[in-house]
Amino acid sequence: MKGKERENKKEKREGNGAKKYMPVIAVAVGILFAAGGGIWYKAASDQREAAVEAARLERNRENLAREEETDHEEVLDFSLDSGLHVFESIKMRPRFVDVGGENTENFVKVESCLVDPETSNIFLKFSTEGIPESDDEYYYLFTLRAFYDSVPEEMTPIMRRRKREEVEFQFSRHFGSVSGLLYKYIVAVKVDGKYVAVSNPCYVTNPEAIAYYQSNGDSPSTKKGLLVAPDKIQSDEIDDLGVKHAAYNILMSRILGEAEDKAYEPVKYTYNGIDYYFNGQVMAEYDMVFRTLTEKGIEITAIILNDVSASYPEMIHPFARSDIGAAPYYAFNVTDVEGMDYLSAIVSFLAQRYSGRENGRGVIANWIIGNEINARKEWNYMRYVGLETYVREYAKAFRVCYNCIKSINGAGRVYISLDQQWNNYHGGYGNYNAKDILDEFNRQIKAEGNIDWGLAIHPYNVPLDSPYIWKESVYVKDTADTPIVTMANIDVVTDYLEQEEFLTGDGEVRSVTLSELGYTSTQGEELQAAAIVYAYKEAEANPHIDSVLFSRQTDAQEEMEDGLALGINHLDGTRKYVYQVFKYMDTDEEEKYTDFAKEIIGIKEWF
């Protein structure tokens, strides 16, 4: 009896002890359940790709269901000690912050947005100072195509995470048939039943991590390059000149047009589940050019130009369509699904076709997106808009091209193109200063995820028809406010890029190529040769310049009408004085062929 009484008393004590802590557990469980209430989303109403959206919504439901199950299991498994620790955790929680006002979109600082080559998942990490006040306990992640500038009201988030000061989203890089590398990601919270963005949009910044190709072969031994003549590609002249870099234009209208010779069948390319067809005759030409140059050990720079193709108006930016015929080249269109899909399909096709020597079609190492972007009226036509808007439209297209190229060939380099008008425009509705475009482009790219872009600049002389680089000019100064950049002050550009805000993510100065540069022979062939030597010596001495591509191999009739005979050959193919100078100026025999220029320039030694 006494033993049974002791057992009853023991059970009673234990029962009272349990009752003593029941309020603690109840409060803790109540808090946790309140924090983990289920949130369900309405289906998107008007997505273009219904199948893709349906798949995304299904993943949303599965993710939320798993989170709900996890939340509840955590509550049921919580021990007495965990319940007690809830109150200590509450005391330690970060402060709550009102996310309203001008800085709402900057509340979340995205630390990184990277694709993992092993899992093919994207990891987006971010941090905050404090916890944003909102309707619930969650951050929500949205995926947007590049043409969206904000989160549409009807759009549905792909996942959520509990609010903390440090959070990571992990998700597949595949969204239906579209690569996640072509999306930008926004973190949001729900306020008064609506999603409010609390971060800038952010793209994946390491597309090269998943690239199959990771090399362009051996690096060129010198910086000497040339805009090659198509009819001389297979001649011995390029070998004789010792060219190490070559530039070649790729025009959208040529790729998208129909072959004049019907013996050439269209080239089919399937991208995002859609079949595209490209001009087989033009692609055969490009194959020959790039294969031949690659076999000669020449590094290739391709310039992607958006000229008009009558059958594909979606390639032209809507702000330019009312003035077709006003310029040779136009702003790329990434304002809608059609334009973006075509651009990404074409660039992916080209990158796939011209990466890796095993393809047998040649390797393009460098890609320039557009031509002289700051020269809006002449080379990147769009009706006049403010600088920020103008650059934003280009930056969207650049990001699409960059991620398409780098995800296929991780060693590829992608460049923005600017001319020599560094700081020469003052107001009005004409063109933009190269410096202003560069500043704004860098700011926008960094805001949405820093990438390893490069600069392709054209430091022609002023005036264009003068070969006298070395003569003083009020337009050419050795300071960052110089109106014009020529080879006399090219250091201004590379010094400018040495600033911390312009460095790559690894802290390096960005790649610079002088992708177009030439001097006329109309005032004398020796003068032209001296100017080319001067320019090459300046480029050779600058550690941040990777190549200089002189324009051109043969004079162009349309340029000669403006007094610009820039070729190292005459129109009829005969050689100018500069031919031999060009051939030897980067060899052991250079002095024999370049010393003449010192007397013309008025110097005793090179730089």
Please give a structural write-up.
Mean pLDDT is 87; it is low at 1-54 and 68-80. Helix 1 packs parallel to helix 3 (80-92), helix 9 crosses helix 10 and helix 12 packs parallel to helix 14. The strands form six sheets. The chain has an eight-stranded parallel beta barrel, surrounded by four helices. A four-stranded antiparallel beta sheet has the order 6-5-10-11. Strands 2-3-7 form a three-stranded antiparallel beta sheet, with no helix packed on it. The protein has helices at residues 2-35, 50-77, 80-92, 237-241, 252-256, 280-295, 337-353, 376-379, 387-406, 434-447, 491-497, 525-541, 557-560, 578-584, 590-594, 596-601, and strands at residues 96-97, 109-115, 121-127, 131-132, 138-145, 159-162, 166-172, 174-175, 178-179, 183-191, 194-197, 224-227, 245-251, 267-271, 274-278, 299-305, 364-369, 413-418, 454-457, 512-517, 545-550. By secondary structure, it is an alpha/beta fold.
Short structural description:
This protein has 607 residues and is of the alpha/beta class. The protein contains 16 helices and 21 strands.
**Fraction of residues in helices?**
25-40%
CA(first)-CA(last) distance: 109 Å
Please give the count of helices.
16
Largest sheet descriptor = 8 strands, parallel, barrel
Radius of gyration: 30 Å
Strand content: 15-25%
Strands side by side in the biggest sheet = 12-13-16-17-18-19-20-21
Q: Unreliable runs, pLDDT <50, ≥5 residues?
A: 1-54, 68-80
Number of strands: 21
Mean pLDDT rating: 87
User: Structural class given helices, strands, pairing?
Assistant: alpha/beta
- Envelope shape: globular
